[in-house]
Amino acid sequence: MEFKGKVIVVTGGAKGIGRSCVEIFAARGGQVVFSDIDEASGAALADRLGNDVAFLSGDVRRLADMEAMARLAETRFGGLDIIVNNAAVALNGVIDEIDEERWTTVIDTNLTGFWRTMKACVPLLRRRGGGAVVNLSSVQGLIGFQGWPAYAAAKGAIIALTRQCAIDLAKAGIRVNAVAPGTIMTPMNEKIFEETEDAQALIDSWNRAHPIGRFGQPMEVAELVAFLASDKASFITGEIVRCDGGLAIRGE
């Protein structure tokens, strides 16, 4: 029950890594408010987890939605201690082929969405006298993959944003860290497989890219998120921690 008495917000909490984060915080005593554009999945998850979990149908591309999430945390649970920035989309296309709409959608969701969440929620952490922010970046913010410039640009910017915010918010007692997952079996990646002609060949190649020899699972990432958000990580801030099965260090 390490999160008993703690209030947590999670964006993109209805599926994948976000869903596992909501589950792990709730299981360990936290009170959780999460948002997602998937209203049906979000409502079902909140209903299953009980009264200490609240769902808000919201889009990180709208500041008003993130402000509503912050208000819900305050009115229902009395404040806020932890922010988990997770909501993201994955749209590919090499730099001279991706159209402006796809580029803008990725940047607006995966980067500016993080800013909107923190703008709305950080004041509540200040009122508590401190807290923690965990941002979901990616190994694609550290190393290159063919055909993903918008996604990589956003995830790389999250790394810079994390370090900057760690400096800016340290005096307020707020720690800011990021997690950089490798390939995780989430609905986002499942959608990529569905749209690929030879899904099994892609799955096999991605498995081989990880020295551990397999994809990661959402709960493996959520465990790291929970650690960085917890008091066990009280002297850690401004760090980018990979959870990638060795993907970023592979020498091939």
From TrEMBL:
Where's the Ketoreductase domain?
6-182
> Keywords, A to Z?
NAD, Oxidoreductase
Cytoplasm as a keyword? no
Pfam families, per the entry: adh_short_C2 (PF13561)
InterPro entries listed in its UniProt record: KR_dom, NAD(P)-bd_dom_sf, SDR_fam
Quick check: keyword NAD in the entry?
yes
**NCBIfam families hit by this protein:** PRK07231.1
**The family this protein is said to belong to:** Belongs to the short-chain dehydrogenases/reductases (SDR) family.
Question: Can you name this protein?
Answer: Short-chain dehydrogenase
Species source reads Shinella yambaruensis
